[in-house]
Write a structure and sequence with these properties.
By secondary structure, the chain is α/β, with parallel strands linked by helices. 33% of the residues lie in helices and 16% in strands. It contains 9 helices and 12 strands. Strands 10-9-11-1-12 form a 5-stranded parallel sheet, sandwiched between helices. The longest helix has 17 residues. The two termini are 21 Å apart.
Amino acid sequence: MPARSGRLQDIPVVGRKRVLLAAPRGYCAGVDRAVIAVEKALERYGAPVYVRKQIVHNVHVVTELEAKGAIFVEEVDEVPAGAHVVFSAHGVSPAVVSAAADRGLQAIDATCPLVTKVHREAVRFARDDFEILLIGHLGHEEVEGTAGEAPEHVTIVNSPADADTVEVRDPDKVVWLSQTTLSVDETMETVRRLRERFPNLQDPPSDDICYATQNRQVAIKKVARDADLVIVVGSANSSNSVRLVEVALEHGAKAAYRVDYAEEVRQEWLDGVATVGVTSGASVPEVLVQEVLDVLAGAGYADVAEVRTAEEDLIFSLPKELRRDASGATDARARGGRASA
């Protein structure tokens, strides 16, 4: 859905109009891997290839893959027996893996390796009979997948307020894990409240919130303190995109809004605005950010300065089924490919 140029007016404001462009932004390594996995599966096996849930939480990415022949379903029982199915970047529970096997599906697991790490932590702590307090949003695919690894050991803590009421069997044998795409600050507040009630609460062996989520939040914090308005490009069901709006408001932005496409930017948002901050969630292709910048330039915000707080060079290998082409040669994109900002 391309942006319509000239839609916004260039109305004078007090001060110099400019854009502060946060970096890092956009695609992370896990998203890149998952999207390439669907593209490669279509190249390798031909359309249709089925995908359980949205491969990543971005309406543009899903629409583009549908146009190439991907079919998105809610559950594996909607996939024809024997067909190829890709599990999304958010991960699945063992019950889903078993259901796919029972239907004879050719499953390709595009779960982000950082999510897989949390799954393994849940399995290990459950094996040692710990009660796991999983900090995350109830109903989110990632939380469902992680909880499904050890449902009898997992209690979901949906917010800091939940930390004040959650009950555990043995306060001396409890550990916290988290969804990878949460607000770092809110998660730490939840942990603080939990530890007040359960002083022997154990930490995970390493931080569960992914590097990309943290990097994007750090960058928008720096931008927000100088911004009259922050625009976050990302979809409504993208947890990390929604968190970026919240973080911007918490750290000084006078206003912050989320858009899927540039044409959603409203004229009234720019009233009296000299400095606009722009960023994007971890499942957003850079072309959508560029369209927002183009629309803003038409409204007089052509001066763009990048605010970079970290460098990202992590890449993940593709799922093993896709690392070689049909001839058996190693595929050129076996270790990912597209760079993020």
